[in-house]
Amino acid sequence: MPAPPVAASDTGASQVRRVPAVEVAPTVPDREVAEFLLDADSLDPTTLALAAARADVVRVVHSAAVPTPAAVRALVEVLEDEVRAVGRDRGDVRVVLEVEAVVAADAADAARRRAAVAYAEAFAALTWSPSATWLVAPPEVLVADAAALAARTGVDAVALALVGDSRRSAATLAALAAR
Fold first, then answer.
1. Are 144 and 176 in contact (CB under 8 A)?
2. CA distance 65 to 96
3. Mean per-residue pLDDT for 28-34?
């Protein structure tokens, strides 16, 4: 579900820019779209250049190589430079940040769930903190937090990768995001 384009010209020209959006991450990739995944294993100059030259969609996931919103923003800027370097328009490449998301019943439930994830993570001996990048909140707050994250990172959309029982809320979240 691509972000809706919005005309951005006072002169009536056909210039288009994308508006940050929120979506539920697809469980099955769209085979008709050239998609590249940028994660710790694929984050190298060759993959960035290929993505810039060929991708319709670039999916970014948090990892030890991209552990924070600031790192995502920096990666988006590098990707935009690569897109321009190969002569493509930035509007031709949709950049999506995929984040794990947990739907909570209320603020207290969200705090409890965050604490449980952080507790388990403390014993995992990881080089970065995945729980710091998860979105955990009631549905309305989750969508608002994802939209704010899209704006902060410069991506075209944040795709909520629903964890566990949160998958049952996919339709509700999609409806909220469509508003």
1. no
2. 17
3. 83
